[in-house]
Specification:
Two copies of one chain form a homodimer. By secondary structure, chain A is α/β, with parallel strands linked by helices. Chain A contains twelve helices and twelve strands. Chain A is 43% helix and 16% strand. In chain A, the strands form three sheets. The first copy, chain A, has a six-stranded parallel β-sheet, sandwiched between helices. Chain A has a four-stranded parallel β-sheet with strand order 7-6-8-9, with helices on both faces. Chains A and B meet through helix 4, helix 5, strand 2, helix 6 and helix 7 of A and helix 4, helix 5, strand 2, helix 6 and helix 7 of B. The structure holds a DNA duplex (16 and 16 nucleotides).
DNA sequence: GTGAAAGCGCTAACAT
DNA sequence: ATGTTAGCGCTTTCAC
């Protein structure tokens, strides 16, 4: 750590006591000190290139002005947008975010949580869908404000911010229905994720409502590879009867696209494919992916807002904030081949 | 901040003095304390769910075990991979990364740097190509270890980790040459980025060496939109003579692809396009993008490694670490149309 | 091998 | 309006 200019050096230069420097430099207490003195202090601080030591301050104020963000996988393109929303909302408030990418591992998640807690974060935004982590219990006992994003662990008692999966799935299924599709596949994500479960359930309801045939297959991870794998299996079966695929995420849809191409079939002529999330560049794929646009950055912003509220007002009721989504029709869906 | 179990509560429960707890819990000093006592302390700590307060410790040790990472834009898909490399290397060493996304703004970058410095980061990895930020001068005076990634600001005296742009451009140009292309466009990025300049220079050299005609156009930002805009302008000109485009980044190449499509031309039949970086999903685009694969995660790892070295050994010579890259040929390049 | 005491840089009571 | 004092939780001499 670099040699640090301390508050007392500034005090000496300005010819005042350290506490006066502290007051002069803190906007909230600036009014307590004589304006001329304040100006002198500020000049001194600038000339010395003084940066207050936030750790020392935090030790005193019991506020770190830091919040922790835990995500399962930074390379999943939905998370950067969410993070951007969080940072964009928090930075102007003076908060800095400590980011932990836990790479989908439970063990890493535990160590990330404890590392963040040790660093005295003032709150935590968790996007991993923690369900059974033992630390979470500890966490909730500790009273540290937590907001869940995107994936909600059941019964944690924390606020959850998420897109409206039900609405998105319904819009997509209706779109497919209007194109004449009557028999479809849902590629679900791992059922340990609440999002995957929610979307699969929404599929069942939507297909019943539209009297469409539905078959659900489950991918073991939310990756292109797993989407490809399950679609491979589907296409290898004799007598294919489905004409459309609704994937639980764009990544899975992308895998389906790959498999379809590999089998010498065409999308959308032979099979329509629809995704979920509208990840960046979904439009550039081949073909451009019809998908449900989830307001990722908004979700980030809203979760930051919820966290600020929880920090200020203490734990409220564990409300669920659901943001509206919209269908984006592109080239991967077309009338059902008859 | 949550009510915190302190070291003295652990000490009381274990029936020892706080300093003994400190020694017992720190692996480096554990040997100083009686094994049985240590065990008792550890049990007590666990039962109380004790987490050491890293800020308090840092105040004493002058080590925050935190490093700051400044990137220009999280939603640019090359950065998550780099960050992942950094975190992957640092987390096992006990370091946590404080991430600041400065959204391409110089003002934000300054405030991010000062926010990180205030938080006593032990070092900084900067991927924004800081050139004239006044804070950087201050920074280098302060002696805080810094490593530059990807984009090197000229003459900063900091180590730089980057991919081998020259090698990548050469490989791509030679590939295009062997396909019969003799007249090409380089879509350069903003010339304020050293990477953009370096790749443009490499283009000049490579084209001279292969006696290819080259024209360089400059995009005002590294985005799909700007790539599309400059390509639009190119295609609107009468008597197009080029048959291939080498973009400075994949995002720019993607924009070119869009423009080509919009003008009713085909890639690669009419125009070949090659990118740079091999961003995630470059393979899924339409057509799959020929590009230069840059070992992004490796770059992150190496920059973390360099930073650790600088933290341990003090500033070394400001070496430049250049990692090899490779050409990935996909569907966007084909023989020149005659 | 363990305890006592001091102090990291800061802010918040309290005093003046 | 400013100075004094104490203490946040921890580690680190220095004693014993």
């Amino acid at each position: 750590m670099a040699r640090q200019v301390t508050i007392s050096e500034v005090a000496k230069l300005a010819g005042v006591h350290a506490s006066t420097v502290s007051r002069a430099l803190n906007p909230a207490t600036r009014s307590l000190v004589n304006e001329k003195t304040a100006r002198r202090v500020i000049t001194a601080a600038e000339s010395l290139n003084y940066f207050p030591n936030i750790m020392a301050r935090g030790l005193r104020t019991r506020l770190s002005m830091t919040i922790g963000v835990i995500i399962p996988d930074l390379t999943n393109p939905i998370f950067p947008s969410i993070i951007r929303g969080i940072e964009g909302h928090l930075a102007p408030l003076g908060y800095t975010t400590l980011l932990a990418d836990v790479d989908g591992s439970n063990a890493l998640e535990d160590s990330a949580i404890s590392s963040l807690v040790q660093r005295q974060v003032d709150g935590l935004i968790i996007a991993t869908g923690v369900e059974q982590s033992s630390l979470v219990k500890t966490l909730s006992e500790s009273g540290l404000p937590v907001v869940l994003v995107n994936r909600g662990a059941s019964e944690t008692g924390y606020p959850l911010v998420t897109g409206d999966d039900d609405m998105g799935i319904r819009a997509s299924v209706e779109h497919l229905h209007s194109l004449g599709h009557r028999n479809m596949i849902h590629i679900a994500g791992p059922q340990s994720f609440s999002t995957s479960r929610g979307r699969a359930d929404a599929m069942k309801r939507a297909c019943e409502g539209n009297s469409m045939q539905l078959r659900i297959v489950e991918a073991s991870a939310l990756t292109v590879e797993q989407g490809e794998r399950v679609t491979d299996a589907l296409l290898a079966e004799p007598n294919r009867s489905f004409t459309a695929i609704q994937a639980s995420t764009d990544l899975l849809a992308l895998g389906a696209l790959r498999a379809i191409r590999k089998f010498g079939l065409r999308c959308p002529e032979d099979i329509s494919v629809s995704g979920f999330n509208d990840m960046p560049f979904a439009e550039e794929f081949s073909p451009g992916l019809t998908t449900v646009r989830v307001p990722l950055e908004e979700i980030g912003i809203e979760s930051a807002r919820q966290l600020m509220r929880a920090i200020k007002d203490g734990p409220g009721s564990p409300l669920v904030v659901t943001l509206p989504v919209s269908l984006v029709v592109r080239a991967s869906t077309a009338p059902a081949s008859t």
